[in-house]
Amino acid sequence: MKKIGFVGGISWTSTLDYYKYFNQGVNEKLGGLSSPECIIHSLNFSDIQERGWTNSFDLIFDACKNLVSHNVDAIVLCANTAHLFADEIQSKIDIPIIHIAEATAIEIKKEKLHKIGLLGTKFTMEMDFYRKKLKEYDIETIVPSDKKDIEDIQNIVKNELGKGLVTKESKKKFIQYANALIERGAEGIILGCTEIPMLINQKDFKIPVFDTTKIHVESVINFTLDSVEKSTDNNL
Which domain of life is it from (predicted)? Predict the structure, then answer.
């Protein structure tokens, strides 16, 4: 198996899911006591919050360099917003970054959808790094049109979900925000923040919902086991 380096702690609550889903997924495929080799560089999320995401490149990049120094085969950024820096970091390191938006776009294309609603942090929704990646796959992305809604989503993600707090009131709000995107023509909803699945999931909607955490991890599992599966096939 290939060794994976995770940049976590952004936030720790979603990093728990990454570690759990990654280990469960590999074990389901290989059985027995099999588990993947990985290294987690868990950042202090408070440092990023104090600087702001747009000023946190060096924190993310230093974590990636540390993982590279431990001979990992690929880097996984355990947050959608952290992919703000994915292309720049990729240009500076020699191992692949498994991109969450690209993995999500591939899943959306499998469903033959063209217009998608995106819920995430303020930065993921307002900046173009995520939408540009989806556009490469001919996917149109829409986000909440009301700035107050975007600020409310940011507040819930940062001050509730980032601390592991889940409330019925916030769940109701997120369903309303998603339904508003559906009314504007969204054929599916991207849960574009790795904490959002703590609140809402496919059971809450009739149209496809894309859990970016699970999609990302599945892509990581496929990368991790690629050489194992090829080796197994060659032995048949």
Answer: Bacteria
Q: Where are the domains of the chain?
A: 4-99+214-234, 101-211
Sorted by sequence, the CB contacts under 8 Å of residue 25 that are 6+ apart come out as 217, 218, 221
Q: Which fold has domain 4-99+214-234?
A: Rossmann fold (3.40.50)
Going by C-alpha positions, the residue among 212, 204, 196, 208 that lies closest to residue 116 is: 208
Q: What is the pLDDT of residues 22-80, one digit of tens each?
A: 999 999 999 999 999 999 999 998 999 899 888 999 999 999 999 999 999 999 999 98
Q: Is 101-211 a domain of CATH 3.40.50.1860?
A: yes
Give the contacts of 24 (CB within 8 A, at least 6 positions apart).
none
DSSP tag of 159: H
For tokens 């990093």, what's the residue? Answer: 15
